[in-house]
């Protein structure tokens, strides 16, 4: 193996056969996690399933009109890929900026940016793939009066926790 200046782990006895690339079929995602009314979530890539150390990936199905409160994710970067439906994002110190994304669109949320996720459809489930830059679940709620109040169904997944009392 050519040396590129980085340390490489020793090659396993099976030559990476069982510890190398893994395909996670869509029908085998792990829904054995706490579920929340209004949303269904399932992990595809995490430490427990494949030994991932630096990323988490899974699917999120958000029921119509679901909204989060204002929050940010600390040092984490997040990428949301919209498979089906219409997502509306609000962000900024007063959630004053807004953008919508539809099927095939990617949404990038940088570290520390105050934001709110919204299913912009009153009658269609929003189906997304979520990838985050660490296995940590970091969500810091911010005391901002949201422009669109989360009064119907809260958007809660492994990184968006339900507010106290829900």
UniProtKB/TrEMBL annotation:
Residues 59-130 form the Cupin type-2 domain. Transmembrane segments: none annotated. It comes from the Bacteria. InterPro entries: Bacilysin_H2HPP_isomerase, Cupin_2, RmlC-like_jellyroll, RmlC_Cupin_sf. It holds the Pfam family Cupin_2. CDD domains: cupin_BLR2406-like (cd02210). PANTHER family: H2HPP ISOMERASE (PTHR40112:SF1). This is Cupin domain-containing protein.
């Amino acid at each position: 193996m050519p040396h590129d200046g980085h340390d490489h782990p020793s090659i396993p006895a099976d030559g990476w056969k069982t510890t190398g690339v893994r395909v996670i079929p869509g029908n085998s995602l792990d829904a054995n996690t706490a579920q929340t009314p209004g949303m269904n979530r399932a992990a595809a890539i995490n430490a427990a399933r494949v030994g991932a150390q630096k990323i988490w990936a899974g699917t999120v199905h958000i029921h119509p009109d679901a909204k989060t409160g204002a929050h940010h994710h600390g040092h984490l970067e997040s990428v949301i890929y919209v498979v089906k439906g219409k997502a509306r994002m609000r962000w900024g110190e007063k959630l004053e900026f807004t953008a919508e994304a539809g099927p095939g669109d990617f949404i990038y949320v940088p570290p520390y940016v105050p934001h709110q996720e919204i299913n912009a459809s009153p009658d269609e489930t929003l189906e997304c793939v979520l990838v985050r830059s660490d296995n940590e679940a970091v969500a810091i709620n911010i005391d901002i009066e949201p422009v669109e109040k989360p009064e119907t169904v809260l958007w809660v997944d492994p990184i968006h926790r339900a507010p106290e009392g829900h």
